[in-house]
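[agent] plan:
  1. take the single chain provided in the ticket
  2. run structure prediction with default settings
  3. attach structure tokens to the ticket
  4. add a short note for the reviewer (M.T.)
[agent] executing step 1
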Amino acid sequence: METLAEEIDDPENTLDMETINADIANGAKAFNQLLKHSAADWDHWATTIIGLRALRNLAYAQSHTSDIQAHAYRQAIGYLLQRPKYSVYGRIDKPTRSTCYTTSITA
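[agent] step 2 finished; step 3 output follows
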């Protein structure tokens, strides 16, 4: 049996990885569509934002902080953005990514 500390050190045990991975994949697919077509398509942007937020939450868990200024968080998000399955999010410039974290996506 794992201790609480071991569970926290393993984000896959404490996070709903199925939902996170689905949100990230759906967001990446939606952003790829935005790159090929209209940038004004709100449905694709909303899905992209959800995926980007899921990726950010994964970085929070891996870095053990929710401080986006922390070195550990920046290292974690940088690493994730370099992985092939998440790299499409790296094509979103930093100011736009920041806006995505705070944008309301309710209809």
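[agent] step 4 note for reviewer: Residues 19-102 form one domain.
[agent] ticket updated
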